Backbone:
């Protein structure tokens, strides 16, 4: 009998298991994958996420793998240029974009070392319920075997991503759904050495590039979904053409010196959503319960942040300090409130055009070194979006740079 069974062992599941096991709870983690293994990802971890890894004793392990630090970012939104970096957050002056083959293996190892039991290559097929409908365990099979196995627990958490089996089995409904606007193609290139770039032009297309492991750059392009079929017909040439159009010097360098080391990978992301993430004996964490467009690169960081909150609430319940379902409900409320601003920002700018509000804010920010620093610190998690976009702060920004003429643009609505 386990205290908690976690379904999914990547950047939400393994940290949850590790934190609970460190507090003396008996935890089982299962995942249909084996590790190390890859998964579609932005790879990007903001300072707020790195701060969690640091506090858990895992950041030094990640750095030791040779992942290169990123200490400058170059953003461009339809002619608005923002370059710089965040102020130090928890002493961190850089960010990283590790390969998931590396990051996820570190997290799985961390869970095991904390005392959690990990079963790789195990696919959950059913949830077990008691007579009152409370979830009390899982049934499933080791991949390739016929015999089903059963595990019981006091609580089950689905950390199994966008296509969560747990979420489907508990029939977790969606809310706050915003249709996805774009598709992404990306791959890994050697032979080029660039800074971080994230640039959008006036034709609803975007490039992103940042360094990752093994001397490679992750290079990506994004376009509106209605152009996917056209793009896919000649993906290689269209990929390069977008770089040529947005930043010609990068496009030329990519053609002349870049060597694509892996296949081009398409990402047709699902809609942005939240799902009902708690119920009798169960919860959802990470993309299983909350997903937004990769445009802002917050997925891994949010998974680490809200996993920490869920671990604390589960511990309160398992330790008998309060009813566990009540505690977990607070985790969901905190997640939804804390992520409200970043969700709205992401779903807006991932349309690859700026509303008058965001155009004014970003254009004014580009003219102020102080507010550029605050902008990057917001992205890094050092200040909340509500603070950056607060009307009194925007008034100070607009007065400092004498822009825009219409000072009424102090809120998105």
Residues:
């Amino acid at each position: 009998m386990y205290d908690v069974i976690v379904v999914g062992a990547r950047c939400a599941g393994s940290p949850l298991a590790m934190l609970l096991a460190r507090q003396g709870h008996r935890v089982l983690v299962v995942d249909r994958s084996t590790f190390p293994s890859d998964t579609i990802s932005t790879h990007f971890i903001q300072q707020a996420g790195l701060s969690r890894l640091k506090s858990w004793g895992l950041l030094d392990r990640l750095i030791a793998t040779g992942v290169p630090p990123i200490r400058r970012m170059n953003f461009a939104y339809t002619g608005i240029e923002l370059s710089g970096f965040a102020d130090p957050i928890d002493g961190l002056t850089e960010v990283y974009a590790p390969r998931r083959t590396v990051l996820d293996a570190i997290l799985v190892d961390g869970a095991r070392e904390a005392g959690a039991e990990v079963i790789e290559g195990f696919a959950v097929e059913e949830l077990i319920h008691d007579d009152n409908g409370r979830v009390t365990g899982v049934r499933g099979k080791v991949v390739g075997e016929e015999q089903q196995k059963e595990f019981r627990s006091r609580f089950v958490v689905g950390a199994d991503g966008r296509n969560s089996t747990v979420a489907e089995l508990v029939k977790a409904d969606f809310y706050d759904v915003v249709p996805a606007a774009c598709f992404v193609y990306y791959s890994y290139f050697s032979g080029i050495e660039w800074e971080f770039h994230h640039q959008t032009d006036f034709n609803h297309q975007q490039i992103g590039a940042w360094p990752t492991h093994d001397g490679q750059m992750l290079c990506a392009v994004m376009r509106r979904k209605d152009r996917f079929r056209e793009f896919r017909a000649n993906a290689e040439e269209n990929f390069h053409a977008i770089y040529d159009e947005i930043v010609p010097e990068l496009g030329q360098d990519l053609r002349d010196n870049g060597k694509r080391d892996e296949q081009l990978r398409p990402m047709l992301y699902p809609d942005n959503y939240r799902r009902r993430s708690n119920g009798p004996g169960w919860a959802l964490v990470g993309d299983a319960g909350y997903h937004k467009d990769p445009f802002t690169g917050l997925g891994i960081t949010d998974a680490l942040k809200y996993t920490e909150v869920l671990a604390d609430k589960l511990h309160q319940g398992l330790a008998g300090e309060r009813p566990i379902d009540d505690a977990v409900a607070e985790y969901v409320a905190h997640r939804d409130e804390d992520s409200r601003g970043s969700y709205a920002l992401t779903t807006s700018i991932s349309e690859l055009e700026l509303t008058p509000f965001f155009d004014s804010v970003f254009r004014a920010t580009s003219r102020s070194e102080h507010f550029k620093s605050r902008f990057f610190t917001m992205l890094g998690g050092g200040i909340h979006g509500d603070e950056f976009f607060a009307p009194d702060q925007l008034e100070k920004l607009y007065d400092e740079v004498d822009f825009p003429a219409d000072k009424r643009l102090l809120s998105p609505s």
